[in-house]
Amino acid sequence: MENRPLLIEFNRGIPKTQKELEILKKDFLSNDITHKDLLKNGENPVLDFNKTKIQSEVVVGKSMRISLDRFGFEEEEIDFEYDLKEIDFSEEFKRALEISFNNLCNKFIDELDKKGIYTSEGLEGYKNVKLKKLNDLILELDNVCDIEEGIKNLIKEFYNKLYDFISNFKSENYQVSKKLNFKLNKNQLIWFFKMMYDKGVISGLHINDVYRLLETNTRYYENGDYVDMKAVIRQAHKLTKGYTSPEKAIKKLSETFDKSFFSSEK
To answer: Most buried among 23, 138, 160, 182, by the most CB within 10 A?
Structure first.
């Protein structure tokens, strides 16, 4: 078993200049085990930018044991076993690119659903927009970018791989979401279904079964996007027991489902 965090992350996007690459390399080199104590003390280690490999701690195993807390209750504690591993900058860069590739492919598919692109014509138009942006990035990489050649080739392979994915993507490669998207926040959606259950609009199920159906089949709206429902029973318990106030949810639902909502007029 090996478990370690990614040592290169493209939080500001994939580097476009050698300067941006060196910032990534600085962060990477700082993770060498020899700098651990300096970093803990808030000191900046002296880095050798000619180095391409570091030694880093990784989790290679774990074991569980039972201990007693101060009240005499049993607690499970996990002990991790660590080992040192040599990590190469280029290999870690490739690993970061692979994760970015998977994330961007998933994001491409998610946006199709979010934007309501379900026809072949709509898909082709959307693909063309993305492919043009990728072509521009590849052109910039070839003609402007001053990044060292080895890393430049890795980035170019990444762009081409993403280009191929989008170019070959067909409408049958994905399914329309099987979940119902509600333009309600999580508390509003839970309270809405709770009220339907309490008033007998939903019957034949236990309320917890209703919450499980919500978790499996619906998504709520937050910050301009639809989000999968999780931990519904726990959140419902907070609302019903008063640990979280349902008043805002009730107010919003009352405004949404007023008399005009059931009118035939749009």
So the answer is: 182
Q: Residue 141 in contact with residue 152, Cβ under 8 Å?
A: yes
For residue 246, give the DSSP letter: -
229 contacts 184 by C-beta, under 8 angstroms: no
User: What's the rounded Cα separation, in Å, for the pair 208 and 57?
Assistant: 44
Q: What's the CA gap between 43 and 34, in Å, rounded? A: 13
Q: Rounded to an integer, what distance in angstroms lies between the CA atom of residue 195 and that of residue 46?
A: 63
> Residue 247 carries which side chain, given as an amino acid letter?
E
Structure tokens at 74: 């049993």
Structure tokens at 38: 């300096």
- Which DSSP string corresponds to 22-75? HHHHHHHHHTSGGGHHHHHTTPPPP--TT--EEEEEEEEEEEEEEEE-TTS-EE
The DSSP code for 261 is: G
162-193 pLDDT tens trace: 999 999 998 766 655 678 889 899 999 999 99
Give the chain's end-to-end CA distance (angstroms, integer): 58
* pLDDT tens by residue, 120-161: 888 899 999 999 999 999 999 989 889 999 999 999 999 999
User: pLDDT at position 129, please?
Assistant: 95
